[in-house]
Amino acid sequence: MAEAVEVLRAALLGSVPHGFLGRRGGVSSGVVTGLDMGLRGMDPDDPALAPVRENRRRGVEAVLPGARLVGVYQVHGADCVEAGDWAEADRPHADALVTDRPGVLLGILTADCAPVLLADTQAGVVGAAHAGWKGALAGVTDSTIAAMERLGASRGNIVAAIGPCIAQASYEVDEAFRLRLLDEAADNARFFVSGAPGHYQFDLEGYVARRLERAGIGGVERLGRDTYADEAAFFSFRRATHRGEPDYGRQMSLIGLA
Prior knowledge:
alpha+beta, five-stranded mixed beta sheet
């Protein structure tokens, strides 16, 4: 019997169709064994992507059966777009998207960066953001909240959940990295602890949560799952890089309206 797709959900998002997926329940093999969702810039119809297409079908059926999956071409920036009817090959370059249309399932890919799912259930508006350190620093979550407001959401009614991402214990950075964050705000020092000489451990999840809280939304939930440390459950770019592996899997986080 095939392994079921594992779907992690956030209490704060309640009954909104959503899920943070990992690597369990897919058909990909090799170093990306499991529920690998990455298109890798390839033609979506390339036969080599057949396992990914099946994984995506399984993911959609596990979260919002029959929905139309919509994603963007992620570039580690801060742009957010309203989900459209584009083909996979025509995805806009952005790192977040929003919708108020039932039957549309927003999808964000990550492999250590923080996936953020947002919802205003009263207005019927949802959003999804890919928040690596670059995008988070540039304001991708702020852009997503603003885009939700343009669709009728109220900032105080928006709640957000931060899914599996690389944890502080696994995320070593250098002094130059730390200084970039301190240039934005001196109190960002709270997101670093000393590590090896000249290096620090960075709390990406904490930093993203703080950006959301400062935006004045109604609530923020952290799942507290480490993509780097939990190999059985998640793909990790940094883990694959440290091992010199030729590829790495991408997990997807999904949210939509029934």
